[in-house]
Design brief:
Blueprint (H helix, E strand, L loop, with lengths): L1 E5 L3 E2 L5 E8 L9 E7 L6 E7 L4 E3 L7 E6 L4 E6 L8 E9 L2 E4 L3 E5 L2
Parallel strand pairs: 2-11
Antiparallel strand pairs: 1-3, 3-8, 4-5, 4-9, 5-6, 7-8, 9-10, 9-11
């Protein structure tokens, strides 16, 4: 399974960040699969943001829930994170991740910088 993040590397404060993960080697509708977004701000630990499950259901960490959404395009085998009202604290390397029954795959990560 391969995952590839794509999206703008620079976003202005108060704008909406949009990142897409393109998946190959498995389907995002595979039973019991979970497709997550995880980020790592500079000098800080990894932070799990949320996932979209094989069923299409989504779940987010409470601190980001009000600003986050994850959607999917099953035809293109992609899922997309949107994070609204970004601030400087949203600067991070963003990773997409696949987990299913012990299988765990990560994208290479993409740097997103929030700056005016």
């Amino acid at each position: 399974v391969q995952l590839q993040e794509s999206g703008p590397g620079l976003v202005k404060p108060s704008q909406t960040l949009s990142l897409t993960c393109t998946v190959s080697g498995d389907s995002i509708t595979t039973d019991l699969s979970f497709w997550s977004w995880i980020r790592q701000p500079p000098g800080k630990a990894l932070e799990w943001m949320g996932f979209i499950a094989y069923s299409g259901a989504t779940y987010f960490t409470p601190s980001l829930k009000s600003r986050s959404s994850i959607s999917r395009d099953t035809a293109r085998n992609q899922f997309t994170l949107r994070l609204s009202s970004v601030t400087l604290e949203d600067t991070a390397v963003y990773y997409c991740n696949f987990w299913s029954s012990g299988r765990d795959y990560w994208g290479q990560g993409t740097q997103v910088t929030v700056s005016s």
